[in-house]
Specification:
With about 1100 residues, the protein is an alpha+beta fold. Helix content is about 45%, strand content about 20%. This is NACHT domain-containing protein.
Length: about 1100
């Protein structure tokens, strides 16, 4: 058994035993809590069975991982050989390395002091040249010479543009054709950091560039590493000179160590840089070093004129100068294959004039001219490719400064986007989704804002996950994925909470700074965010739990989907054999999270967590797997496959989550199907971001870069055209500039930017996080919170809240008491018992000046029957003493509303046949109004006018004459309120469509000033003294503040988890008070809600 397999099998057995023991312990624990119902036992049984399924799946996954890691050897090597041969044969044709015939290159063992002569080996066989008609035959000769030379390394030196990469490509194709040797793999070595062993780096690059060979993830890297350790791979490392100069010495030391352990390799490098590296670290002890000769003039002449028509003399001036001045600019420039190929490329059309080359006096001018003409030839047009040149220049700077690698990989393009931008894009998108989701629940602004807050939190989690995947430098090894999952989850949730806290603190601070300068709409907008983040979490602690639970679930799903994946492209792979292990991975993750919730909800909650988390994670990992072995990778094919994998994953996850959520959540609770679809859509977004889809981050990056003018809107098409035009070359899934000279020409050297990894440059964000957390308790103290105080509770429903003009508040309750509250301290000044709790629904009235209180005291009388007369007590509000008891001409079973005139001299009593007006001082009836069974009565604050409502609607009456002044509405079940100055009457009623209709009336004329319709059931309306502010309450525990003059809503807020039974607003409009069916009374600051 392989030593690599043993730990995984041991882990599988250990996980299985630990899992069975853990499930047994959970069963004993839950059973010990006492369960009498069969449903509880069914829940425990379901939990145990589901846990067993998850553990079995995980064990299978670990065993398969062990087998997969040990699946290296000849079959994998054969697949790799085929992929390399097909890839580089096609690329050689695209680069026209052999068309119409290759440029003749010669090489010889170098005479530079950079090599060590190995005993018993010769160098004669390492001399050679590319044949005129069969370059591959010459390359095969170099391969054979290298194999028989006895040394493990071959170093190819040359000047810039001397043809080192061309020779490396031909060497790779020739070596790949030989079935008995190691598989050559051509890699650009500039991105290697010598701190990492070259074997490890090569294994990671091969696994990433050839996913069709070994698959994805740590297992693929381990499989390739086995090929390397078995000497079945021959790395061809091109461009050692493109590494930073300080790293060249350590690089040679690492290469020499690898060669000493038996790893064969080929290395290309410029001769000057190689000499400097040897001067730092010494010569390679197992290397044969050859150098490419400058191209002879005769070979250059043959190549330049090879495709000319008979009799053409276009090139004659150039050839004459080449012979006449062998050390001049033309001879120097046309001594390298790169410049010779460029010259023929830009002057290949018959209408061009190569003699222009003779006009340049220096080598640098001539090289710049050829590079400029290459771009003009590649992008002809009126603007001579100015846009394309700008885009290419940006890519050159990106590869130099950000990627620090000559390989242009589309999935790493997102590294050019700042972390904050990526997180901001994701967070903004999910904030909008959350807001729309909250709005879809009931159409209310608070739910939309609460959904936005949830979306922001989840968006930060997803954004951080996207950044982490985008910045990943490699795969997380199998032994570290658990720690990576736990660490990432904790960090992400912490950052999300800190972000919300920071936003909350900033909003509060900003609001305090500009308070008084905002107009009402601006104040409402600021307060909306404050109340959602602050008030709801204070009033309803369940919301805070919701944030924590949702954040934990999402973090677990994201970390589970992305664990062990380094941000490389994926392919959709519907392989049944991987379904069970993938589901086992997801279900186990869900079970671990769910076990923590047993104390909260018994055995059913862990089961729900396991399914809701496990299914999306399992399906997401299953659908992003290994492609077919015969697939040849290219940038476009990998982009399309990753996009297809993402769409397939999201589709299956949405469908699976919708079915699961419907049967375990929505259907048992009878919820609307939109809830199921919302849950499925949310998990679809998690699958999109959690699987580490490279296409998603690439899409965000290309949109951002295109918006800033750095790249076109469709960069992949631009790159394909640049490759076809000869500006770029393709190396497997990556693009590269045709030569480093072209990259430097587009992006000349400049002072390097400050190192972004400098700890001092990143010190600001933890300080900002600490400041945000520190500000949170401070803002909770200085927050202009609308909630002000809890007044002493009643023992039953609060039925009346009445304000006098002096600010005195009277509360009445079905517990039979009325309480007078001090307008400053809000403490109870006195309590009046007006009933014994038996006569539920007694009437209560307070005069506008606050001097007199009237209440139904019939229930205090003895020997009551259904025909007993109704008795009404009158109290002096200043002393709390009952002055008198009036007897109304009605019976107990028809007790109605009461109202007191503004000075407390006249009492209106609702009776079966009408409203009776009683003189309080004498107890005599002074008049009647024809309003039978009135449900609400209210005196005008200044005039002898009474407003009433019954089944016929709302009407205004003159109490001195008994005349009807105005009939305002015809709707039954209405409510109304006068303003303190009596000029305005506000009414609420149901319209013909069942909506709540709010109207403002001019009392003098009886005409409507404005009307508004709301989609909720309002229970009460009140106006302050000057009629500027109106307050209404609905049955959902929300208070609505209005501008009474215009009818504009200033704010709508949930102020109580219970339904509001009544509401009142203070005379100055700065406070309002709410009562609930549980007896709770709360005082609020209206002036801090947008006034």
């Amino acid at each position: 058994m392989s030593t690599r397999r043993t730990p995984w099998l041991v882990a599988a057995v250990g996980v299985g035993l630990a899992g069975f023991a853990g499930l047994a312990g959970v069963t004993v624990f839950v059973a010990g809590q006492g369960m009498d119902g069969s449903g509880d036992w069914a829940g425990v049984l379901s939990l145990v069975l589901a846990g067993l399924l998850a553990l079995c799946s995980l064990v299978v996954w670990l065993v398969r991982l062990a087998r997969r890691v040990d699946d290296g050897g000849p079959p994998v090597a054969d697949r790799l050989r085929k992929a390399v041969r097909v890839q580089w044969t096609a690329e050689a044709a695209a680069r026209r390395l052999t068309q119409p015939r290759p440029l003749r290159l010669t090489w010889h063992p170098t005479a530079r002091p950079v090599s060590v002569a190995a005993p018993g080996t010769g160098t004669r066989s390492l001399r050679g040249s590319l044949a005129d008609r069969d370059a591959l035959a010459s390359a095969r000769g170099l391969v054979d010479a290298f194999r028989t030379n006895g040394q493990r390394q071959l170093v190819v030196l040359g000047a810039p543009g001397a043809g080192k990469t061309t020779l490396a490509v031909l060497f790779t194709i020739a070596a790949a054709e030989a079935a008995d040797g190691p598989v050559p793999v051509l890699l650009t070595v500039a991105g290697w950091n010598p701190a990492e062993p070259i074997e490890t780096w090569v294994a990671g690059r091969i696994a990433a560039d050839y996913p069709a060979v070994a698959g994805f993830g740590p297992a693929a890297v381990a499989t390739v590493r086995q090929l390397i350790d078995g000497r079945l791979v021959l790395p061809v490392l091109d461009g050692l000179d493109e590494m930073p100069l300080p790293l060249l010495g350590p690089a040679l030391e690492s290469l020499d160590r690898a060669a000493g352990s038996g790893l064969p390799m080929v290395v290309t490098c410029r001769h000057e840089e190689f000499e400097q590296a040897v001067g730092q670290a010494g010569a390679l002890s197992n290397a044969a070093v050859v150098e490419i000769d400058p191209v002879r003039a005769a070979d250059a002449e043959a190549f330049l004129t090879d495709r000319e028509v008979s009799g053409s003399t276009r090139w004659q001036p150039v050839l004459d100068e080449l012979r006449r001045n062998p050390t001049g600019p033309i001879a120097t420039v046309l001594s390298t294959p790169l410049m010779i190929a460029l010259a023929r490329r830009v002057y290949q059309r018959p209408g061009t004039d190569p003699s222009q080359l003779c006009a340049f006096r220096t080598v640098a001018e001539l090289e710049r001219h050829l590079l400029d003409r290459l771009l003009e030839t590649a992008y002809p047009g009126p603007d001579a490719g100015r846009r394309e040149r700008r885009w290419l220049a940006y890519l050159a700077r990106h590869l130099r400064d950000t990627a620090r690698d000559p390989d242009l990989l589309w999935w790493r393009l997102a590294r050019a986007v700042p972390d904050g931008v990526l997180i901001g894009i994701v967070a903004a998108a999910l904030t909008v989704v959350g807001s729309l989701t909250g709005l879809a629940v009931d159409g209310s602004a608070p739910n939309a804002a609460f959904g936005a807050a949830i979306g922001l939190s989840v968006g930060v989690l997803c954004g951080r996950h996207t950044v982490r995947v985008t910045r990943a430098t490699g795969q997380v090894t199998g032994r570290r994925w658990i720690w990576a999952t736990a660490r990432n989850s904790i960090v992400d949730v912490t950052v999300a909470v800190t972000t919300v806290a920071a936003l909350f603190s900033v909003l509060v601070t900003a609001f305090l700074a500009v308070r008084g300068l905002l107009d009402p709409p601006g104040a409402v907008a600021a307060n909306t965010l404050l109340v959602i983040v602050g008030t709801d979490l204070v009033i309803q602690p369940g919301y805070a739990v919701t944030f924590a639970v949702i954040g934990s679930i999402f973090a677990a799903v994201l970390a589970g989907l992305g664990a062990g994946r380094g941000g490389e492209p994926r392919r959709s792979s519907l392989r049944p054999g991987r379904l069970l292990p993938s589901l086992g991975f997801g279900l186990t993750l869900g079970l671990l999270v769910g076990l923590l919730t047993i104390p909260l909800g018994g055995p059913y909650l862990p089961l729900a967590f396991m399914l809701v988390i496990g299914i999306p994670v399992g399906l997401g990992r299953w659908l992003t797997g290994t492609p077919a072995a015969d697939v040849v990778t290219s940038p476009l094919s990998m982009l399309r496959s990753d996009r297809t994998a993402l769409l397939a994953t999201v589709t299956v996850v949405v469908a699976g989550t919708a079915v699961t959520a419907h049967f375990i959540y929505a259907a048992p609770l009878g919820l609307h199907p939109v809830v199921t679809l919302t849950i499925a859509a949310v998990f679809g977004l998690l699958a999109a971001f959690g699987t580490g889809a490279a296409w998603l981050s690439y899409t965000m990056a290309r949109l951002w870069l295109a918006a800033r003018g750095h790249l076109p809107w469709r960069p992949m098409r631009f790159l394909r055209r640049a490759h076809a035009a000869g500006v770029l070359r393709q190396a497997g899934p990556s693009y590269q500039f045709r030569h480093d000279l072209l990259r430097v020409h587009l992006a000349p050297p400049e002072p390097p930017p400050p190192d972004r990894t400098d700890p001092r440059a990143r010190r600001w964000w933890p300080m900002a996080a600490l400041l945000a957390v520190a500000l949170l308790p401070v803002t909770s103290v200085v927050l202009p919170e609308a909630y002000e105080a809890d007044l002493p509770d009643h023992d039953d429903t609060v039925t009346y809240l009445l304000y006098g003009t002096d600010g005195t508040l009277v509360s009445g309750s079905d517990d039979g008491t009325a309480r007078f509250h001090d307008p400053v301290t809000h403490r109870i000044r006195r309590t009046v018992r007006v009933g014994d709790g038996i006569n539920v629904g007694f009437a209560l009235a307070l005069s506008a000046d606050g001097s007199t209180l009237a209440a139904d005291v019939t229930a205090l009388a003895s020997n009551l029957d259904e025909f007993s007369p109704r008795e009404i007590g009158i109290w002096d509000a200043a002393t709390g003493q009952r002055r008198t008891v009036l007897v109304a001409d009605t019976t107990l079973d028809s007790s109605g509303e009461l109202a007191l005139s503004s000075d407390g001299s006249v009492l209106a009593s609702a009776e079966e046949d009408g409203v009776r007006l009683i003189d309080v001082a004498s107890g005599r009836t002074v008049g009647t109004l024809p309003v039978p069974n009135a449900s609400i009565l209210l005196f005008h604050p200044r005039l002898p006018t009474l407003a009433s409502t019954n089944d016929d609607g709302i009407a205004l009456w003159d109490t001195t004459t008994g005349a009807r002044l105005h009939s305002l509405t015809r709707a039954a079940d209405s409510a109304f309120a006068f303003s303190g100055d009596g000029s305005t009457l506000a009414t609420i009623e149901k319209d013909a469509d069942g909506h709540e209709l709010v109207r403002s009336w001019d009392v003098d004329t009886g005409r409507v000033r404005w009307r508004r319709t709301v989609d909720t059931s309002l229970v009460q309306v009140e106006l302050n003294a000057d009629g500027s502010t109106m307050v209404t309450a609905d049955e959902g525990g929300r208070v609505w503040l209005w501008d009474a003059a215009t009818g504009d809503r200033r704010s709508v807020w949930r102020v109580d988890a219970d339904e509001i039974s009544t509401v009142a607003i203070s005379p100055d409009g700065t406070r309002f008070v709410t009562g609930s069916y549980t007896g709770r009374i709360r005082l609020w600051r209206a002036d801090r809600w947008g006034r």
